[in-house]
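batch job 7 of whatever, protein = Peptidase aspartic putative domain-containing protein
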Amino acid sequence: MDTLDKTLRSFWEIENVTCDSSSISEELNYCNEHHEKTHYRNSEGRYVIQMPFKPEMEKISLGDSYQIASKRHNNLWKRLNRDPTMKFLYSEFIREYKNLNHMEEITNCNHSNDDAYFLPHQCVLRPSSITTKLIVVFDASAKTTTGYSLNDLSCAGGVLQDDLFSILTKFRKNRYAFTAGISKMFRQIEINPSQRIYLKILWKEGSEENVKVFALKTVT
């Protein structure tokens, strides 16, 4: 009986699900309240949100970010000119971004505006991928002349994905399970037009073309 009792006890201990009772952090609570107050849906039905900046951003000058973005853009093109395949895929990525209206060109841009932010960007190659062989990564952690980055002054928010344990237990609830992905899911959400000055990028169509300034319009 003792052996059976221990076996049953071990079984129930393994099957027991403990709930995380930890309180929501102050920053996460601020993000939730900020989202509730500022988000809306536009005429197309898309959600429009504002990035949750930290309160101290109002007292801090973000600094000049154009110089580092320009330098990294020049280095990027040196790399692209050495690799025709990467150059083609990168150009196609940016072209699709524009065609989907996920970014817009900015003319008469003030490069020295400390109240704006230029995002350096680079790529990650995945030759073995069937669907997406190249991904462009926008670097919001690049420091400006004041030593701050866009990430430094933005609230982190909460974790959007379910934890691994919750995902695994869902497979025990039903007989069948399937997985799927939503193409460009986050880019279906737009950034409030007033904040797109913090999502500027540099790009040119070719080695001899002039550099243009664009602003990303969606969540990346």
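notes: The first strand starts at residue 40 and ends at 41.
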